[in-house]
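Annual report, structural modelling task.

Input specification for the zinc ion complex:
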Amino acid sequence: MLSLLLCLNFGCTGCYGAVETTLHCEGHGVDENPGAMVKIACPWCGINNEVVFTPDGTIHGVNRARTYKRIPEPSHN
Ligand SMILES: [Zn+2]
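The model returned the following structure:
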């Protein structure tokens, strides 16, 4: 089983703060995936960033993730 520990550093799209995160990838296909995307919430402002990266640790882009405010569904019972 392939196991990767990636350190991703990027600037938050919301507050431009430096975000450092460690990502644990494992499984098959990780090394041949052209680009994976992960959502990482900024520890400073809480905005979700979508980070596109490849398993060699290269960050290809950081986008502001759309925030969906989920309305809790009332349970009818
Ligand atoms: Zn931020």
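The chain has one domain: 3-64.
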